[in-house]
Amino acid sequence: MAFQDRTADLPDDQRVVMTAVGLTSPNGNNLEDYRAALLAGRSGVQAYNIRYVGDTLAGVCNFEATKYQSRRDMRRGTRAGTIGIWCAHEAIARSGVDWANVDKSRVGIYVGITEHGNVETENEIYSIKGYDYDTTYWSHHHNPRTVANNPAGEIALNLGITGPHYTIGAACAAGNAGIIQGVQMLRLRECDLAIAGGVSESIHTFGIFASFKSQGALASHSDPTKGSRPFDKDRTGIVVAEGGSLYILERLSDAKARSANILAEIVSYAINTDATDFVLPNPERQAQCVQLALKRGGLAPDQIQIVSTHATGTASGDSQECEALRNAFSGCAGVRFNNTKSFIGHAMGAAGALELAGNLPSFQDRVCHATINVDNLDETCAIDGLVLNEPEPLGQVDYILNNSFGMLGINSVLIVRRF
User: Fold this and answer.
1) Which segments of 150-246 does DSSP mark as H helices, in order?
2) pTM of whole model > 0.85?
3) Residues 350 and 84: beta-carbon distance below 8 Å
4) What domains, with CATH codes, occur in the chain?
5) Among residues 377, 367, 304, which one has the least CA distance to residue 342?
6) What are the phi and psi torsion angles at 22 (to 5°)?
7) What is the distance of C-alpha 330 from the center of its chain?
8) For 296-318, how does the pLDDT look when each residue is reduced to its tens digit (9 = 90+)?
């Protein structure tokens, strides 16, 4: 069967490109610093203490939030909103778009999330217990903090955007899902510029840590930088992380018209559902999602140079995904597989978007960043082409495939190519 990238046949007003990314991660607040940390093998995971759970590990972001937001607005809003506002401003600034003259009614905001507002809700409950749970002390900001369209709505308010805004709740597949939604809305001409990706505030809510701990899936290690260790036989679970990555997406025709710098073109995507378990992944469905994305793009598996894996550091999840990858990429000797969570932990709703960002510079530097902390590879995770502990130079990088999966069996795959 002959394969041909189907986007090449589309008119420019149906082709969608990434013209900038704004991000904050546990090891960098812009793409350059983030990429440098990944190539240097520098982890952003640190020791962390969370109410009721105690000492643990987390991927913590450290960015200048007041650069784009007043302290008053930060107190009124959510941590997820603050992360989203930072990422959106940074993306716009890096895009080169003439923001002052952009029609804000034609800008769409599509933000993938796992959860939001839990942080502030937990804090309010903690506070009113000191007043015998008298709800007259409950914050009147609670409702806008917890409605489903926050944090996309906070971004819209901050930037004066009057086009469509909403969040995409897709568990830990949400980063990819936000980008996919942006692509679809641009192709439907519902907007002319999309701010799309994912954000996570997860480290600030003790409920997430407590749930993973009770499940036996919360990572621990005497050296925090070695706590996140997907594929390693001695992995102990998930390192919870916060972060965000939002992209400026445009139709190729518009990007060309303003001579924009193009980071990548989005060539295909797929979303499907396991429909088998609340939390345990289904490798057959994951493989089908990868295969569907390849088929939609008119791509053969061996045309992909880098696969960014979802692997979280859990015993079953890593092994199941590797089974799916062996199925989808059987016999593809030129494909390389890496993992970004080993550096930053699991950024939940931001994971897919952040992990894709970390790999995008491969189109220019032709290097596949490694998976770190693999001292003893679990044989159930062995895949030909798995890049471990040291970056691997590649002759050419034309296509990157980004896996991102989530609870309740949602799977997402995004494929981008060098432009």
Assistant:
1) 152-159, 174-187, 206-214
2) yes
3) no
4) 8-257 (3.40.47.10), 268-417 (3.40.47.10)
5) 377
6) -115, 135
7) 26
8) 999 999 999 999 999 999 999 99
